[in-house]
Amino acid sequence: MNVLNHIDAFFSDSAHWQGYDGIPTRVVEHIEYTLLALGIAAAVGLPIGLLTGHTGRGGNTLALVATAARALPSFGLMVLMFVLLGLGMAPVMIPLVVLAVPPILVTTYEAMRSVDPAPVDAARGMGMAEAGVLFRVELPVALPLILSGLRSAAIQIVSTATIAAYVSFGGIGRYIIDGLYQQNYEKVVGGATLVAGMALATLAVFWAIARLTVSPGVRRSS
Amino acid sequence: MARAGSDGQTRRAFGVLIRIDSVTKRYPDGTVAVDRLSLEIPDRSITVLVGPSGCGKTTTLRMINRMVEPSEGRILLDDVDIMQQPVNTLRRSMGYVIQNAGLFQHRTIVDNIATVPRMLGWGKDKARARARELMERVGLDASLAKRYPYQLSGGQQQRVGVARALAADPPVLLMDEPFSAVDPVVRKGLQDELLRIQDELDKTIVFVTHDIDEAVKLGTMVAVMRTGGRLAQFAPPAELLSHPADAFVEDFLGADRGIRRLSFFPSAGLELLTAPIVAVDATAEQIAARDTTDVPYLLVTDLDGKPLGWSEPRELTAGSIAVDQLLPYGRPFVAGTESLRAALDCAVLSPTGWAVAVDGEGRAAGVVSQQTIGEAIRGAHAERRADGTAEKAQKVAR
To answer: B115 — contact with chain A (CB < 8 Å)?
Structure first.
């Protein structure tokens, strides 16, 4: 098998494991881009999703914005931003954040809306403040769904962050883009394999986060 | 079970009286949920708001803890307007129980119950100790403390809901159709439990239901509301059953209100016949000596005096009474403590038409015919009319 040979060759070449173009360096860069983009997207999407979901207001506007954002091509957006803003991290981060905000925003909103209204009514009726209702009654129950939104956003970022290499940044995209340019398919396939591996690792990380943060009472009843 | 009465003055110092003063709730679209409602809810008793759907009973309840703000009128707690304190302080001073309990599924049972004490700033250990105490009070096994709500049955969840509402020992308890979603057997258990808890704790309870039987069973006072949020009648259940204010209330009470009213008449005055009772080891002479002119059947008891069943006198042969040949006696009633309704029910269910009365230990205390019960009912009605005490009638047995 050609592809398997490529993979084997790529990963067994000791030159690929060291230096500024080595796998550890590229993977760490890739993780940095992902975390930065996910962090910004969550900082935008989570509060808006939690608040609109809690109050039940603005759901339609939200769906509209999300659909529009999803229609933007990440690569085109990055090139456009690169032209407008010049070389820098912003042209890379903007398309990644635009990509990640809709799933976070929409699922967080939906998660909050799907919380059983009875405990919320009970909580208010016993004199819990609104912040308490949001964070101590709704959020713990909505958490599994919110995490699933963050997870799909993270996976999309992981696979799309390869475009950073087009504008001279690092990350795993380096292998794919350089490989294509150099017609070195071993590199292309190796890079693609790394991206796939990272997507799987992301799934594992979110599974672990859910285990740690979601109450057994919610996990088993939903 | 008498709660009104002479010590009302001393009790008032501890209980909370709720006065609803000409309250209207009008929604922006013009719908009037509650229309100039005035109601004085006595302290330390259960007041039931009952009526068909859309009568504003739940809205009325929710205005008391300001989950709904009145459009007009005032609500006073012990003469203090509820608008005068911060809304969450007000709510923390009132227990709140809703249909389906509304438990927090991510919290264990003990932490669900500890919610309000924790909000009031109690330490975790103190709040949990209090929660465990309440689990016992509402009849929940201590082994359920660390479970999650989904692991409990509907009835158990509702008990947790009641315990959670009682956790901070609030003087007022608001209950919004709390037992509507459970099956009739569980519901009866929860109702009995509520009455038992109320006997111990003496809260001011406002209870909303659409079930008139539940209202009559639980209420010290019952407010019947009609569609459009208006009060149709506010009276103790016995008076409601005997003197419905109008055709609406009469219709709402249902066709058998006469029978249900009998729950308010004691069975203590019934004349019980003891002559037809024979022990299973009775001799032929003893049986022959019984005066059975009025009673076509004899009631056979075991050696402890507990009823076994009915038999015709001539079928009884001394020393060899065939226990499995006896006619069943249905359900006995407890003489004195249970009501005429229970006595009549027993007589109707008994294949011989005679009701069996037992004492507190289940030993046969006598037998009584439908005819005698009928006379007692007529007598009780006459007595009530004569001294006009229908209003003060208290429940004999629930």
So the answer is: yes
